[in-house]
Amino acid sequence: xxxxxxxxxxxxxxxxxxxxxxxxxxxxxxxxxxxxxxxxxxxxxxxxxxxxxxxxxxxxxxxxxxxxxxxxxxxxxxxxxxxxxxxxxxxxxxxxxxxxxxxxxxxxxxxxxxxxxxxxxxxxxxxxxxxxxxxxxxxxxxxxxxxxxxxxxxxxxxxxxxxxxxxxxxxxxxxxxxxxxxxxxxxxxxxxxxxxxxxxxxxxxxxxxxxxxxxxxxxxxxxxxxxxxxxxxxxxxxxxxxxxxxxxxxxxxxxxxxxxxxxxxxxxxxxxxxxxxxxxxxxxxxxxxxxxxxxxxxxxxxxxxxxxxxxxxxxxxxxxxxxxxxxxxxxxxxxxxx
Amino acid sequence: xxxxxxxxxxxxxxxxxxxxxxxxxxxxxxxxxxxxxxxxxxxxxxxxxxxxxxxxxxxxxxxxxxxxxxxxxxxxxxxxxxxxxxxxxxxxxxxxxxxxxxxxxxxxxxxxxxxxxxxxxxxxxxxxxxxxxxxxxxxxxxxxxxxxxxxxxxxxxxxxxxxxxxxxxxxxxxxxxxxxxxxxxxxxxxxxxxxxxxxxxxxxxxxxxxxxxxxxxxxxxxxxxxxxxxxxxxxxxxxxxxxxxxxxxxxxxxxxxxxxxxxx
Amino acid sequence: xxxxxxxxxxxxxxxxxxxxxxxxxxxxxxxxxxxxxxxxxxxxxxxxxxxxxxxxxxxxxxxxxxxxxxxxxxxxxxxxxxxxxxxxxxxxxxxxxxxxxxxxxxxxxxxxxxxxxxxxxxxxxxxxxxxxxxxxxxxxxxxxxxxxxxxxxxxxxxxxxxxxxxxxxxxxxxxxxxxxxxxxxxxxxxxxxxxxxxxxxxxxxxxxxxxxxxxxxxxxxxxxxxxxxxxxxxxxxxxxxxxxxxxxxxxxxxxxxxxxxxxxxxxxxxxx
Lengths: 338, 264, 272
Known about the structure:
The complex is a heterotrimer. By secondary structure, chain B is α/β, with parallel strands linked by helices. Chain B has helices at about 40-45, 70-75, 90-95, 110-125, 140-155, 170-185, 200-205, 220-225, 230-235, 255-264; strands at about 1-10, 15-25, 30-35, 55-60, 65, 75-80, 160, 190-195, 205-210, 215-220, 240-245, 250-255. In chain B, the strands form three sheets. Chain B has a six-stranded mixed beta sheet, with helices on both faces. By secondary structure, chain C is of the alpha/beta class. Chain C has a five-stranded parallel beta sheet, sandwiched between helices. In chain C, strands 6, 7, 8, 9 and 10 form a five-stranded mixed beta sheet that branches. In chain C, helix 5 runs antiparallel to helix 6 (about 130-150) and helix 6 runs parallel beside helix 12 (about 255-270). The chains are: A mainly alpha, B alpha/beta, C alpha/beta.
């Protein structure tokens, strides 16, 4: 079994390497081309120049946010898929993104961001998300037991209701507000407020550390709730706390970056195929994998048809979706060949 | 070791068990038998702390199980589950899950001791040779043994089994129960198991408790409980009870309707 | 000595005056681009959006994105001293530019002709062409007033301007497009509507005499066909359904505004 530990450590190194490579790639590529030599020189001595500013004020914040959001979304995906024992669950299934979207829409429509400053937008999003979290939770708790299936159903329903509400808001809003809403929903790693980026980073890392307190619980839950109880896990407490961690982190991510799909669904699957289902390795691997994936997608989004920038959700969807289909069909073919 | 006092429990609106009084001394194999719907599984679920008693209490070594922490209970009581675990887990990984109750504080990696215990349990149940195989790829009988191995790695004092011989052929049924008997004699493991097959219960259990309509109809040694009158009363079916020529334990024989008519 | 001071002051005035006038301007909206050309500062315009196609020379400029999403790196690397944006641009991008120390001025969508003129004057002031701007605005105001006079006593036809298809979006009262109708002597049936999404039923109820379609894209032909099917519709009956190029309507400068009202006036009052 020492073999397994070595296997795990190797994979952590590989994924970290991948992450660093993607980050450097993202730093290197952009509308303003810079050779590797130039970049090195700029980093070491170019403080105050245009190139330095481009690297550190424009590209780097996006990379950091990509790391935080990509990591968070994959982490949430792993937690929820473990809790629900359902591979199709992802961060937005519980309707939390819907709540955040409504919060943001209301903010835009009532011009709160003009009155209270641009920071009010993510704050409203977060409050909206929290409202949904509380609603979904209270509707799914019966006699002190958190019903997992109920959570899922309630979440999906609230998702639908939110989309309809958002369409309603969009239908009665003015054209300029409409644009703001659509932008936000499309998801973007562009965030002018560096403090917010820092908060997201801290939140995502905190989420990762906290989730590790439950890695054993998640392993046990994979056998079923009753089995987990037999193994000594306080299942109710674990479910509750995991739900809180997942929801709060989702609320954060959605409030800051909008809705970026597929990362939370697809990355855990891929990582699981490679490193296995043990949550002790899966949590951190998914985090690293998701971070790398999002940074890569964002880089492509802003460079593929420059100067036009595609919404990052488009790239995650296309890349994630097609890769997923490819792997699935290969698996089918391999099975048939057997 | 296990004392059940005046237990009454059930689900939401329906009460299934009434006034159950049962005592299982250490190192004993106790079988719970009874017709379908008599509450056997409910009793087991109550003992494994899945169902809260509406009346009465359950004590393990003098301590109320509902006063214990989940982990504490899991170190003393292990349940051999019915369910099929995740297909891609190897046998060893699966068995190691049984060590979870023994993880100290923030420990999240298995210690050498954990590995040793798991290996020992796999050896006892003869699945050690399968340890690197994914659970989905071994036979039903072997899977059942792996389940027992996992329960054993919890190093429990009490082992709970719910109809462990279902879906197994004769050879496997005997093999499994022989194993349980061996574990009982060798490790001093107390066993509480639900069995539907009266003959297996008679042959392998030190004591049996016969449930009927949520109450204990009779409990004691198999010879005391398994006579044709009692069985007829509870199961509402005519049987013939003989003695097993080898073990001298009661053996229940069924008679088909046709034969009964012939005899008349 | 005195001469020295005067010369010194003169030179510093020049220097400061030069500093005030931006030399590297980036436009993030077609209407802004048009306005800049009108004011004659196109040489200072270093980049615009891919939608800035009027006047045709604007197409030759560097492109930095769409009217909604701009490429931050490109904009920043061009070292502009003034970035002009419309309210369509993603607010986060303009915030980021401001954080990087670039001067950004955002123009909200004008609600009427007055706003168009005010914004034009503001733009003129920003680029140091205040006088030219004043001139252009005055001329436009006069011409507009003339047209209004001419059509004052003519019959006012009911008009609908459709600016969006699926869903059907009408130009309501708080949108400058409404003024095209009013100045040209017509009545906007959607003037008092609360939301810009309008139902086809309501249009039929109001029964406009003229329908002007100005959506972007290929939907225009379809929309016209749809309207023509309604026999009770006055506009369909008398074949008064027109398609007007979006650019003439939605990216206004004072000058283009007047030209458009003229066109409208001809449409609404052919006998004039």
